[in-house]
Design brief:
Largest sheet: 6 strands, mixed
Strand order of the largest sheet: 3-2-4-1-5-6
CATH topology of the largest domain: Rossmann fold
Structural class: alpha/beta
Helix content: 25-40%
InterPro entries: DEAD-box_helicase_OB_fold (IPR011709), DNA/RNA_helicase_DEAH_CS (IPR002464), HA2_WH (IPR048333), Helicase-assoc_dom (IPR007502), Helicase_ATP-bd (IPR014001), Helicase_C-like (IPR001650), P-loop_NTPase (IPR027417)
Oligomer: single chain
Strand content: 15-25%
Protein name: RNA helicase
Number of helices: 22
Catalytic activity: ATP + H2O = ADP + phosphate + H(+)
CATH class of the largest domain: Alpha Beta
Distance between the termini: 52 Å
CATH superfamily of the largest domain: P-loop containing nucleotide triphosphate hydrolases
Number of domains: 4
Shape: globular
EC number: 3.6.4.13
Organism: Trifolium pratense (Red clover)
Number of strands: 22
Length: 669
Amino acid sequence: EIPQFLFNAGFCNNGKVVGITQPRRVAAVTVAKRVADECGVELGQKVGYSVRFDDSTSNSTRIKYMTDGLLLREALLDPYLSKYSVIIVDEAHERTVHTDVLMGLLKNVQLARSESINDGQNLNNGNKNANGFMLLDKDNGQNSSFDRKERREKSSPLKLIIMSASLDARTFSEYFGGAKAVHIQGRQFPVDIFYTRYPETDYVDAALITIFQVHLEETHGDILVFLTGQEEIESVERLIKERLTKLPQGSQNLQVVPIYAALPPEQQMRAFAPAPSGFRKVILATNIAETSITIPGIKYVIDPGLVKARSYDPGKGMESLIVVPTSKSQALQRSGRAGREGPGKCFRLYPENEFEKLEDSTMPEIKRCNLSNVILQLKALGVDDILGFDFIEKPSRTAIIKSLEQLFLLGALTDECQLSDPVGRQMARLPLDPDYAKALILASQFNCLEEMLITVAMLSVESIFYTPRDKYEEARTATKCFASPEGDHITLINVYRAATDFLEKRTVEMNKAKSEKVLRKWCNENFINSRSLRHARDIHRQIQGHVQQMGLKLASCGDDMLQFRRCLVASFFLNAAMKQADGTYRAYASGQVVQIHPSSVLFRKKPDCIIFNELIQTNNKIKFLIGPLVNRSMQALDYVRPLVYEGKGSFVAFGDDSFRKGHVLGTLD
């Protein structure tokens, strides 16, 4: 409602826009649709949204919802964010890496725009403020001078509103120089909180017992159960259905509905539909149901107090995916879901004294993720001193240096740690992770850009294959139809091209709605996540537009996949691993002993050398090579430039003229 109040108060006069950022794309899209409905306008006109690879705005859009990452990218073209009169940062408590960087950016822009008015000073384009932020000409990205009229327009004051349902207001208030904190009473109904008497040794079993206690003893109302991931949700779903058959006929009226990010969209929507008459619905959800979506009908919440979280070890270059306790703010968000439509109850599956031991809020993502993408964007914005940038909470020095090192190895930075030209600037223009951006640039040289575009698009979405537990063998059989013995990258290309061929043969005379319905049916038959595939097709179309604008050579290697595999090795050389005598693999860059994930087509083949897409450490401390791999012999590494670290701070690279002759090109002490 606040954006609508601002619109009515005149903050969108003279073509200005009220911008609202969300940490998740699903929230940006759904809230924009809701506000458009409330305003009685068509989505994309007065009210619109813009997220990565999906834009629904027009010249008439005055209330614009977007992800925080997208607003950061807008700043590359318009460093003053001059079209915005007000920017609202919503769900700030989630503290995503983009939210934290956006705060530093907005603080700079607000200061620059205010100072030029209050002090009567012009914004000298190319001058840097104390934070090292450089304001660039939005037309050509070079340092130049605006005329006085342009400067006055760009110097109109910028209002910032930081919003959240559970926010440490003091931290943000102090960061923005003592900004006022306004507490607004919500429409929350009372929620009774219940704790266990003793700690639970098996929280899954405790959740099952609580589900049936609520179902058999409590009045009408749906149940929301928070679990840590897809595998756990599928296991609990199966156990509920098994135990339901043992209840009297009159007590079996319980509908089980899962919801998690990788679930196909048509199945996700079941969570929002009312239960059949006379039935109670139990929704098994990941933390996607904490803030991003609101499911109607919830009266009971079961919270084991755990969440699956990623963390990043810059020293090993490895992510960990582990189950950890929630924070207090997450626990409050979860319990609040029971009080949206009326009084509710929340059952926390841990003792009350354990709640007091929880951290107040979740550790900011910027302290537990790879910073390469963020640093590349900051460099593109002209921030030279990354270590001195005014973060709300600074990431570790080690993480920053490791990310700078990675960007240097990818060729994005010069020896002076400046953005390289043209490679670094080209990488910054692409809305992709740095290694994916570099892969596209190299693919143009290897004459396989068409194949790499497909690969990058497919790697940029949730899991393409959908494997339900009750149809495991059917799903595996369907997957084999696309599998390539040369690796998972080529398997993904096979899926994409099979879908494209299917559509071309059957949708010549179909409209868009009917063709999408036909594609969904094909996806269901082949156990492919239709939403992920549709998203990959959208990403492919938009990235293709980017690379064509950049003048990259769009060509296909045809059936010569050797050329494509060489390009993969040259692009992802930091992700190379060699088989050891015991059948495990050792990652070159980190020296970690790793294993191929069972879902890979190469799991049973054990090639001598592999290129992996992602390295994750799971709860059982076994390190997996997650995602697509390519099977190559050692000779393929002849095409690698920086190949492997040798000695402290040094790296070896293959020269341009003699691929087999190694040269030490520099040190990173």
